[in-house]
Model the fold of this input.
Amino acid sequence: MTLMDLPSEIHIAIINQLYLFPDVPNLRCTSRYFYNTTRPPTHDELLATELLLFCEEKQLYSCESCIRLRPNFKF
Done:
């Protein structure tokens, strides 16, 4: 049995337990199904994510126009 064999209710329950970053964006990249099942983060959620140690170490900042985290040299 694979993850895709589980009912969608189980998928949603698993998604709700994931961290907004980096778990959900990574899951969204795995298949069209998960891309369509998960919602993209809002700009406010990305702003809150900037405070995580991972983002501070990698110097990632939220981009309002593309709604994703970008390295500081992209601004």
Notes: The two ends are 45 Å apart (CA to CA). The first helix runs from residue 8 to 17.
